[in-house]
Specification:
single chain; five-stranded antiparallel β-sheet; 197 residues; six-stranded antiparallel barrel; 38% strand
Length: 197
């Protein structure tokens, strides 16, 4: 998300971090692996986001351009991430064994819902592209290539379907059906609040 001299700020979902243990590592697109420090979230924030920081002394990385305009229903977007299961089978040329390719997936999608009150965890952008398990923490990008949100909830989850809104009310039956049918991202406005010192 950001760079200050040699220190980079990255973001993912809190549930991704909770599924593992420190010490944390972050791998960049060029295959470099860096030790990453978990940053304490801002006071009063209870969203499904975690901030990591790492230092690169000899390499420079491009940071995301954050969207300034609010997304709208009907906007074409792209969602990216690394699925953790059901990847494409590929044959290993050396061993002849079949392996699963779980590389980067980019999904072309459309925004179908913008909630005035986010689902618990901060999820407020619903889209029709089917992100898959393991793509949590990936970017939601607009036509201009700007970051508008962070993936985190895929359609038709087997369990832990969000039912509460951030204001503590229960989602209506109609909204609950939409929550189940769409993939969800945390809007960039909430992400920006996590990156402020």
């Amino acid at each position: 998300l950001a760079r200050q001299q040699q220190v980079y700020t990255a973001i993912t979902n809190a549930h991704v971090i909770q599924a593992t243990n420190a010490p944390f590592q972050l791998q960049t697109h060029d295959g470099q692996v860096y030790a990453a420090a978990l940053v304490t979230p801002p006071s009063g924030q209870n969203r499904d986001l975690s901030i990591l920081r790492f230092q690169s002394h000899d390499r420079t990385y491009t940071t995301a351009k954050l969207a300034t305009a609010s997304p709208r229903i009907g906007d074409r977007i792209w969602s990216a991430g690394f699925p953790s299961e059901n990847g494409d089978p590929v044959e290993d040329r050396q061993s002849g064994a079949t392996k699963v390719n779980l590389g980067l997936h980019i999904i072309n999608a459309q925004i179908v819902q913008i909630l005035p009150i986010a689902i618990a965890g901060g999820y407020g952008i619903g889209f029709d592209g089917g992100i898959r398990k393991g793509m949590s923490g990936g970017p939601l990008i607009d036509r201009a290539g700007k970051l508008i949100g962070i993936n985190g909830v895929h359609a038709h989850p087997l369990w832990n379907t969000p039912e509460m809104l951030e204001n503590g009310t229960i989602a209506s039956e109609a909204l609950q059906q939409q929550i189940n049918d769409y993939s969800w991202a945390i809007p960039i406005e909430f992400v920006k609040s996590y990156t402020r010192e």
